[in-house]
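Hey all, quick one. A colleague (J.T.) asked me to put the zinc ion job into the tracker so the inputs and the structure tokens live in one place instead of scattered across chat threads. No bug as far as I know, just bookkeeping. Sequence used:
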Amino acid sequence: MGKEALILVDLQADFTQVKNGSLAVPGTDEVYLRLVEEELRRAAMRGLLIFATQDWHPPNHISFYTNHPDKRAFDIVQLEGREQILWPPHCIQGTEGARILVDNNLFMAIVKKGRDPKYDSYSGFRDDGGKQTELEAILRYHQIQRVVIFGLALDFCVKATALDAKDLGFAVTVVKGLSKGVSPETTLEALKTMERAGIQIREGIEF
Ligand SMILES: [Zn+2]
């Protein structure tokens, strides 16, 4: 079955209701946070490696609507032929909004993404310009073959990270019960896309 690792995606203050985040995902309350942390602790006790991704943008990041004259939050623009949703400013490097809300000592590594002002990066593996993060190399170093992915948001960064993991040859499970999506429609669509790609969707972590 191969060596397994968990990847927690973007569980950051700006994406949560608990912290009144600028881009809060529905359902990210105290109960959700506690559930995720409990599951991570359980996995850590079993000796599983846990990694996290962290959205980590400079203030002049291209995904912020405030950096585009006359645009509003959630407008869609074309950038080099790619569709880009313009988001409210979020997860700015070194701010409270960028903090990961569970015990950071649970993670073997935290991989930052979206650092280049010119490119967005939903995926924890690479940005929209194709530049890779350290995530794949770290997983390979630890001889990981199977990844279990969950976090925020299921229909954006969890999806992109899971699809890239699958493309890179990892066996991939996404834990729906430990993830939250921005909207019901895009969440349903994301689940279908991931299933079609051969990603397993589970309600909880199965040890
Ligand atoms: Zn972002």
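Adding what we noticed when we looked at it: Helices lie at 30-45, 135-141, 154-167, 184-196. The mean pLDDT is 96.
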